[in-house]
Amino acid sequence: MDKEIFEVVLRKSAQDSKIKRIIEMKSESALPKGENFTSTILKITLKVVLGNGRIATKTFIAKKGDAGEAAEQLGNDYALFGAEVLIYNNILKEMEYLMEEFGDTEGPLWCEFIHYSRAESIIILEDLKASGFNTVKRTEPQDLDHARLALRSFGRYHAMAKVLEERGLISKDGYKPYLFLNDEVYIRNLFYAPLQILIKGMRKSWGEEWTEYADKLSQVSFEELLKRIKDSGNFDDNTFKCLNHGDGWNNNMMFKHDWEGKPIEMRFVDFQVPHYNSPCMDVTYYLYSSINPTVRHQNLKSLIELYHESLTSSLERFGYKGSKPTLEDINNGMERLVFFGTWFFTSTFACVLTERTDAMDLDLIFKTNGEEGYNLSVYCEDGVIEMIGEDLKALVKLFDES
């Protein structure tokens, strides 16, 4: 076929599938209450006329910034939407070029970015559900198969970010410090405050054998917690660092499954809190926020090894010329972050996993500096001890050893 003929064929193909006119448009909430904390997620359904005259239905996701105490403070302090738009427009686009350059056929780790309206504070994105992707139910933490795919994906993402940094396309100084490691307001409201409610729940319904643990945790001051968390993420200049996703937990991942229900592809969503640090930060945040704690306890070593293999093989695949972290380097980074992960898990996991939609009220939490907004009943529910008890004992041991 001649080049000129092929050009005509391609143009006609593109024109046939192009949206020519919108006939109808409707929007509805894409997520039930309690599934998203700082944005309103809408599903936009369009009935359209295509370039070939046929009528089709197209769906998109609209992400709108929430009003309210928490959303306003997050927006003012971290410009969440602006940060996410920069990631989509700059970083992810360059990652796509990188994949094309090196013939990476595993597929992107993100959805297509359509439009951003700063005036209306709205981001329009591809509807991944239309392509067969879904989240794992928030109240059923991820299993081993999902964890393996997620960690392989983190390795690919971190490697591409490091190559872009090496090419001068990512600046380590271009991102704000990670709010969960450095911001006193967020650490107080989202780490210290919920543990105080957990302590009340332990004393109310966990039984006498947990009194000693409640007493020891109640002696931990906010200043001590703040120092421990900041120190845990303060890696030296010799550490392998890269751009982190920043919020890679269950609700910010979507999976496509095969006919047996096994995950075969994954996409990250919500790039609002990118930061530059050890990639172990993303890995720790994910492992302690999203997967079944029994799966984590039984498979931690092999999961970290899988992540390291994905990171280093991806660095090699994309032509990275710098030194790669050893497995020992990654293990040391993970060990350094055990305190951060364990505290994060024990104080918040019950709120994430509960079926209740009133587990936490972010606006009230930020309005009262964490004095109100957490539902005590969540920490008294059946199964909470089995879920977080082992890690809670480990947390107390970490304080005893310090």
Give the topology.
Elements: H1 3-17, E1 19-29, E2 39-50, E3 55-65, H2 69-78, H3 80-101, E4 113-117, E5 122-126, E6 133-134, H4 144-166, H5 179-182, H6 184-205, H7 211-218, H8 222-232, E7 242-244, E8 253-257, E9 263-268, E10 275-277, H9 280-290, H10 293-317, H11 327-336, H12 338-353, H13 362-367, H14 384-401
Antiparallel strand pairs: 1-2, 2-3, 3-5, 4-5, 6-8, 7-10, 8-9
Pfam families: EcKL
Protein name: CHK kinase-like domain-containing protein
Domain CHK kinase-like: 123-317
Task: Please tag this protein with its features.
single chain; 402 residues; alpha+beta; five-stranded antiparallel sheet; three-stranded antiparallel sheet; 14 helices; 50% helix; globular; EcKL; CHK_kinase-like; Kinase-like_dom_sf; CHK kinase-like domain-containing protein
Order of helices and strands: HEEEHHEEEHHHHHEEEEHHHHHH
Mean pLDDT over the residues: 90
**What is the tally of beta strands?**
10
Distance between the termini: 73 Å
Strand content: 15-25%
Main structural class: alpha+beta
Shape: globular
Q: Tell me the number of helical segments per DSSP (H or I, 4 or more residues long).
A: 14
Low-confidence stretches: none
The Rg value, from CA coordinates, equals 23 Å
Biggest sheet: strand arrangement: 1-2-3-5-4
Major pleated sheet = 5 strands, antiparallel
Q: Percent helix among the residues? A: 40-55%
